[in-house]
Specification:
140 residues; 71% helix; 4 helices
């Protein structure tokens, strides 16, 4: 065998067949690919926000558990902005409860956004894989 034949990975028939498999990328296809990419980036950002919210909620629950051991008459330092204010135990507990509820609402909203994004990504995958087959990789 000559060196030229050994380098050849595809037969002439395979090359012709592969060239026939190429699908022209239309403007709407590119728009769908770009949309999928933007959704994927938003998905990553929202997942990070969710992790941070879960951590924040867990920290608040830990603080709340620690405050159960505190004396009713104690003034508790409570962080507001960059400073701390000494507040009665009952008020601190109320504020912690309100903050925890707010975080739970934010988590619910983020999870709904994430679900919507993933549904749209799934639909775009179906459309793009139907058009391009194995020529495109949308696995994240």
């Amino acid at each position: 065998m000559s060196a030229a034949v050994q380098r050849r990975m595809l037969s002439k028939e395979d090359e012709a067949k592969a060239a026939g498999d190429e699908v022209e990328v239309r403007r709407e296809d590119q728009d769908k690919i770009n949309r999928f990419s933007r959704l994927h980036q938003r998905e990553i950002i929202i997942e990070d926000e969710l992790k941070a919210k879960h951590k924040e909620k867990e920290d608040l629950e830990d603080v709340s558990n620690e405050l159960e051991l505190a004396d009713e008459d104690d003034k508790i330092p409570y962080k507001i902005g960059d400073g701390f204010v000494s507040l009665p135990l009952s008020e601190v507990q109320e504020r912690l409860t309100a903050t925890t509820e707010q975080i739970e609402e934010e988590v619910t909203a983020l999870e709904e956004k994430l679900t919507t994004i993933r549904e749209e990504q799934t639909q775009l995958k179906v459309e793009l894989y139907a058009r391009f087959g194995r020529s495109i990789n949308l696995e994240t």
